Amino acid sequence: MRPDPGAIGRAPTARVALRSVADPAHPLIASHEAEVRARVLKAASALVDRLTYDAVTIDAVARASGVSKSTLYRHWPSRQLLVLEAFTYKTNLLTTVEDTGDMGRDLHSYLVSLTYCLKVGGAASTVANLLAEAIRSEEFAVQFRQTLLRERRHGFLVILRRGQLRGQVRDDVDLVMVIDAVYGALHHRLIATGQDVDGPFLRALARFAVEGTATAPYRESYRSRN
After folding, report:
1. Are 144 and 130 in contact (CB under 8 A)?
2. Cα 126 to the center of its chain, rounded Å
3. CA pair distance 181, 204, nearest whole angstrom
4. In whole numbers, what is the pLDDT of the chain averaged over residues?
5. Mean pLDDT of 7-21
6. Is-contact 89 41, C-beta < 8 A?
7. Band of the pLDDT at 137, cuts 50, 70, 90?
8. Do residues 69 and 42 make contact, with C-beta atoms less than 8 angstroms apart?
9. Which range marks the domain in which residue 70 is found?
10. If you average pLDDT over residues 176-196, what whole number do you get?
11. Does residue 114 fall inside a structural domain?
12. Cα–Cα distance between 53 and 130 in angstroms, integer?
């Protein structure tokens, strides 16, 4: 609710004071809400590690977190959105964007981190079903793009842009297309072909990206080390 301009400068009434304390933007309330969300996401992400997508229910998360179902639904209107945010939370904790000064090395390290997140526990089932949900529902697809997809694509973008600043990646490269090709390759194997996303594949994928984006001096240096 917007403040009444005429109320500025007047002494606050008891009614206004009570309303401010109940306001979710109040620091104490906001802190409590953040603690509840963190507890739920931690519990839900642990369930994602152990269970399949369908088994991570609102009931299961409520039991694991000690948070009531009504509170869960207040923050996450659907089970799908809760699982999506929990999986994003988990992968954010487990993926780091290295800065070693070498684009190829950083890219490979990021791919290894992402692959671990995709393969541990019930992650493969979770990712496949979240993608299916995004195909079925445009509303969910928007959330998928704004959370999990945005976070992961940003990691790739940071690595490639740093490479450009160092003179390792050509300025004419379409970075978005590179991200689609590299990140999409992981999901293609995980969901479409069922082929293993193993060490040799990740090294070859990083090499593929470097060969297609590198400046001539960096390409020669990279080849001599790999």
Report:
1. yes
2. 13
3. 13
4. 85
5. 35
6. yes
7. very high
8. no
9. 5-78
10. 90
11. yes
12. 9
Q: What is the pLDDT of residue 15?
A: 33
Q: Is the pTM of this model over 0.90?
A: no
CB atoms within 10 A of CB 30: 12
Longest Cα–Cα distance in the chain: 74
pLDDT over threshold 90, residue 20? no
**AA identity, residue 53:** Y
Q: Give, in order, the Cα–Cα distances in Å from 214 to each of 87, 161, 173, 218.
A: 33, 12, 9, 6
What's 62-128 look like in SS3? HHHHCCCHHHHHHHCCCHHHHHHHHHHHHHHHHCCCCCCCCHHHHHHHHHHHHHHHHHCCCHHHHHH
CB atoms within 10 A of CB 100: 9
**Would you state the pLDDT for residue 30?**
57
Residue 122 Cα to chain centre, angstroms: 16
> N- to C-terminal Cα distance for the chain?
60
Compute the CA torsion angle 3, 7, 11, 14 (nearest 10 deg). -50
What CATH number does residue 130 fall under? 1.10.357.10
Tell me, yes or no, whether 108 and 73 share the same domain: no
Residue 24 and residue 70 share a domain: yes
